[in-house]
Design a protein that fits this description.
mainly alpha, 0% strand, 241 residues, 62% helix, 9 helices, 2 domains
Length: 241
């Protein structure tokens, strides 16, 4: 008698489901994994740099656990988060109305705007497979049709707020080490330290997005949806590989 487990039973189904889950979610899992590795690396090297600064100031170093709860570590993390989400927020909303001839990052030149209900499959044009709120014609449809940009904007504002709060704490800590007067949160918002941290991240993110939109006009990456097909014309717009 054959005692091997039949396909689909509990013995073989679980590994199959796991492999399928990993394959179907590999992009998100890859970036989440590399994010956690980068965050851990930042914590390690940041801890070393922070303790070096403490020794220079004639103070005792702190443990790794103490460092990752400091405002210095928090402000370094949040200042990068807010710039990244600003990038996506601006890109999502700008590409509704703005186009770039020849770029796969742009919509087709004649599709600028929010487009028709039929094209977006909303309201009466929603299908059986459409999300429930896509068919709604009240406030739910309005919110859902802009939900991606709104969430990106909310995360940006919250992380920017967190940067300002942790930033003033880190700045005042440094001020006290140097026997100088601390400043209030409102004063910090107009300080050079706050805007230096902010703008150096904004300019790099905006440059990266602009470069991506323009370079993809003339350059290709075979098999990537962020690139046009290798043989597509330089003037082809809104075409992805």
């Amino acid at each position: 008698m054959n005692t091997e487990p039949a396909p689909g039973n509990g013995t073989t189904a679980a590994p199959h489901r796991a492999r399928r889950f990993l394959r179907h979610n590999s992009l998100g899992l890859f970036f989440m994994g590399t994010f956690l590795l980068a965050l851990a690396g930042q914590a390690v090297v940041g801890h070393a740099a922070f303790n070096n600064q403490l020794r220079t100031d004639g103070m005792a170093p702190i443990s790794f656990g103490a460092y990752v709860t400091t405002s210095d570590f928090a402000v370094d993390v949040t200042e990068n988060w807010q710039s990244e989400y600003l990038q996506f927020f601006l890109y999502i909303f700008a590409t509704v109305w703005l186009v770039q001839r020849g770029s796969p990052e742009s919509k087709e030149l004649d599709r600028a705007g929010t487009e028709s209900d039929e094209g977006q499959m909303t309201g009466e044009h929603a299908t059986d497979e459409s999300p429930r709120w896509a068919a709604a014609t009240d406030w739910r449809g309005v919110i859902f049709s802009r939900s991606l940009g709104l969430v990106m904007a909310t995360i940006f504002l919250l992380s920017w707020l967190a940067q300002s709060v942790t930033g003033v704490a880190a700045y005042n800590e440094q001020q006290l080490r140097q026997l100088q007067a601390p400043m209030s949160w409102a004063e910090y918002l107009s300080s050079a330290d706050f805007w230096d941290r902010t703008l150096q991240n904004w300019q790099s993110e905006l440059l990266a997005v602009g470069s991506m939109a323009v370079l993809t006009i003339y350059l290709r990456q075979r098999g990537s949806p962020e690139s046009k097909p290798v043989g597509a014309s330089h003037s082809a717009t809104g075409v992805e590989g």
